[in-house]
Amino acid sequence: MAVETQEVVRPEPRRKARRTLPGFITAGLLAPPVLWLVIFFLVPVVLIALYSVNVFSLYPGGQYFTLDSWKNFLDGSPFLDLFWKSVRMSLIVSIAAVVIAYPIAYFLALVASKRKYVLLLLILTPFLVSYFLRLLAWKVILGDQGVINTFFYWTGIRAEGDPVSWLIYSQFAVILTLVYVYVPFVALPIFVSLDSLDRRLLEAASDLGASRWQAFRKVTLPLSLPGVIAAFIFVFIPTIGEYFTPLLVGGVNGTMFGNAIADQFGQSLNWLNGSVLSFFLLTVVALLLAVFARFLTVRRVATG
Length: 304
Fold this sequence. Notes:
69% of the residues lie in helices and 0% in strands. It has 13 helices and no strands.
């Protein structure tokens, strides 16, 4: 008996949709930000570097490569002393801001459990007000006829017309204002570090007989150090080149390195010297970022 065989016709496999190469997609996504950085960051930095060695010049005449301005700056220049003064002020501001912000972040993360985000929002409300208006408010508070001096007149601590001179237009005024400005900002990385802390470690320390101070010193503080270091960096690096705050409340005594750079480009029209100062500050900041990045990563800050 013959068996009839039926040919099974299988459908042809669908042609795979032509896929765009992932490299082109990645390049298309990265092109706009990279182009932005090249035009508005890399090109100005290169121009400043060329101005600092006299390859480019503001004034007409023969341009030639020279390091004389760098030698004058590094060989006991008053601007170098001003830089170290700015570093000292930035260190004071950074340490003071971290010391003040740490208890705030500790309370929000470990004490006010249910209300922590509401309180955190209240702490960040000063950012809703213009930075310029906040500086003007401190100028009014610290001025010769401000709130503090007026209180001294009223209580008889100071004679009328004899204000406390160092409250305004001084290093104290600059440091106080910068600490006020940066404390809410500094509290954020410390809060994140403390909020991600494993509470079971604190319970284990308590079960082993550790007091609250011992648990804080041996458990909480070491585990929150990445957030503390990140907070310190967030303040120290931008305040080295601070310009606006010393301009409003610093006066002559509170002048910082950023004010000297602005004066060289503006009033003095000495772009050669201004470029040297700017490129030196940029180099110092880049080195500091490289050093801090060696010991700190974003993952450590996030996880505490």
